[in-house]
Amino acid sequence: MADTLTKLAYQTFQDGKNYFGLGHKALATQLRLWFKPELKVKIEGITPELLAEMTRRRDELLQRDWQDAEDGIYPESLLFDNPWEDFLRYYPALWLDMPKIWERVEHKQYQSFDDDIDTRHFPQYYLQNFHYQTDGYLSDDSANLYDLQVELLFNGTADAMRRRVLAPLKSGLQAVKTAKAGSQSDVMEVTNAHQIKVLDVACGTGRTLKLLRDTFPAASLYGVDLSPAYLRKANQLLSQGRQTLPQLMQGQGESLPYRDNYFDGLTCVFLFHELPGPIRQQVIEECFRVTKPGGLLVICDSIQQIDTPELEAVMASFPAIFHEPYYRDYTQDDLTQRLASVGFEDITTAVHFVSKYWVAHKPT
Ligand SMILES: C[S@@+](CC[C@H](N)C(=O)[O-])C[C@H]1O[C@@H](n2cnc3c(N)ncnc32)[C@H](O)[C@@H]1O
User: Domain residue spans in the chain?
Assistant: First the structure.
């Protein structure tokens, strides 16, 4: 009975976020048409069948999310975790930012940053107003709006998609511990293993680290990102409560500031579609270098053409609506081949809703 009620509460919670996301997007589109009719974006191929397919995939994702919590992979409380206070506080700012976005779209200014932002120390490919965000990833205002924007983009399923890295990571880490313990009878359950080290590459505002911390409360967690503003935001989120603070560091995915063979597990969520191809390769090389032999990397990113050609219209609409200069190239990039080329083995992939996952192991 308690389970049925919790499941119902979860479904209602997700439905609420879904309707809110849809309503927000409809209103935002209407406003843009009123104020800037010349910016109308023509999206083709969004048929009723495609929308039904998207609903089916979303339902499947949520069912899996619920099931993984039921199976004890992570606490049920994570299903309801939501930064309400932040969302309420920053939602008006999101609307106030819209005219600036329209201006940038109108004048095709995709590399514009406030004068007081020092852009000199960042790679050129990174200096973009991804999603048309004001100041790209380089201001506190952008960091404050980011989670809300992603939540609205995915109609409330962003964390459910992030959580899909947890089951493969947990079973991979468990295998590492079991192999190390050999024939000893006291194989420690990985959730309570203190020696486990996990790095989240491009941790952004810390959502994945929060999920990791609730799933592996005793593990040592690390987060690296290029954006000082997003790291400040992550620090804020992760400082709430009494749990251990992950070690956050500013750094580049393509030259990770860690020793060789240091981490048991790595996660990387929603980064690769925002990188040019050669940089994707370098990040993968670096992930391999810092992973311990026997450890694993779990990637979550956008779906790709090879797995879901039937969702081509969805993939085409993303860079048409948002500034995503490397996305089309990413959707055709063979990351499995890239992972294998640096030495990862036993590479598997999966698709959940509009995300694709790679699990790759470093040989022992
Ligand atoms: C789309 S966000 C994803 C953030 C987070 N992982 C999430 O799940 O929301 C992309 C993040 O990657 C970071 N980033 C982009 N290029 C990077 C690089 N070369 N090295 C490290 N971080 C990078 C950005 O600063 C930003 O925080």
Answer: 1-364
